[in-house]
């Protein structure tokens, strides 16, 4: 099933709740919350307090993308703040299996995110434990970057890996996705689509969301 996950990184933080309601009214499925620590990625964004302040004010589940070092330290806090899905970067986890179990023990859905240059082989022994895999289609750290075409092959390969094992795991893509390339990523096998600048910087959010759904091949 296609799920659209607008990234609040491109929202107007001075009227965040208003922007969140706009994307919910436009029919988006998940709220993608980008957490950056200035270490794992060069940018600093938001922490659990902001997530918590939005909880209960929208019905969209919270899809929390942790771009931070030592994610284990913060997972309990983000679940308390309302995270429904937590993504951790394989590159930031020394004990990836343990971190995945920690997310699940706290009652959230577990997702592993991979940078564009990270091979799918890191998923070999943990894939069965996951609810979702997030393939970055830009290098993490900033919104509004250009989609990296080479990730299309990787999406296809992940889809095959999941199907070959008879699993049912969502494939999320994040970075540079717009109405004019959503067909490529959905055709390759992605079904959870993050879009920040394409949605929040649009003059007509409902129209852009509708166009993304129309152009998706699923
Ligand atoms: O994780 C991210 C960046 O690290 C963001 O989710 C992503 O960049 C979304 O923004 P855009 O759609 O504008 O590329
Ligand atoms: Fe993200």
From TrEMBL:
KW Ribosomal protein (keyword) present: no
Reaction(s) catalysed (UniProt annotation): D-ribulose 5-phosphate = D-xylulose 5-phosphate
Keywords noted in UniProt: Carbohydrate metabolism, Isomerase, Metal-binding
SUPFAM superfamilies on file: Ribulose-phoshate binding barrel (SSF51366)
Cofactor note text: Binds 1 divalent metal cation per subunit.
Family matches, as CDD domains: RPE
List of residues binding a divalent metal cation: 32, 34, 65, 174
One Pfam family hit: Ribul_P_3_epim
EC category: isomerase
Cofactor list: a divalent metal cation; Zn(2+); Co(2+); Fe(2+)
Binding site for substrate: 7, 65, 141-144, 174-176, 196-197
Catalytic-site annotation from UniProt: 34, 174
Pathway annotation: Carbohydrate degradation
GO MF annotation terms: D-ribulose-phosphate 3-epimerase activity
UniProt EC number: 5.1.3.1
NCBIfam families, alphabetized: PRK05581.1-4 (NF004076), rpe (TIGR01163)
UniProt similarity note: Belongs to the ribulose-phosphate 3-epimerase family.
Reported function: Catalyzes the reversible epimerization of D-ribulose 5-phosphate to D-xylulose 5-phosphate.
Protein's name in the database: Ribulose-phosphate 3-epimerase
The species this protein was found in: Alkaliphilus hydrothermalis
């Amino acid at each position: 099933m296609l799920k659209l996950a607008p990234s609040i990184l491109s929202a107007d933080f001075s009227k965040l709740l208003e922007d969140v309601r706009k994307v919910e009214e436009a029919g988006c499925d998940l709220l993608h919350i980008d957490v950056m620590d200035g270490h794992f990625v060069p940018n600093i964004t938001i922490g659990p307090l902001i997530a918590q302040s939005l909880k209960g004010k929208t019905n969209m589940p919270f899809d929390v993308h942790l771009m931070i070092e030592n994610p284990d330290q913060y997972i309990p806090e983000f679940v308390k703040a309302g995270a429904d899905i937590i993504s951790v970067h394989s590159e930031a986890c020394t004990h990836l299996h343990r971190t995945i179990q920690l997310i699940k023990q706290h009652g959230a859905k577990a997702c592993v995110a991979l940078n564009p240059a990270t091979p799918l082989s890191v998923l070999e022994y943990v894939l069965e434990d996951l609810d979702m895999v997030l393939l970055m289609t830009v290098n993490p750290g900033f919104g509004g970057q250009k989609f990296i075409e080479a990730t299309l092959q990787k999406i296809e390969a992940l889809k095959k890996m999941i199907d070959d094992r008879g699993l049912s795991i969502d494939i999320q893509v994040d970075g540079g996705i717009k109405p004019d390339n959503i067909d490529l990523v959905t055709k390759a096998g992605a079904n959870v689509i993050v879009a920040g600048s394409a949605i929040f910087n649009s003059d007509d959010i409902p129209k852009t969301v509708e166009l993304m759904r129309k152009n998706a091949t699923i």
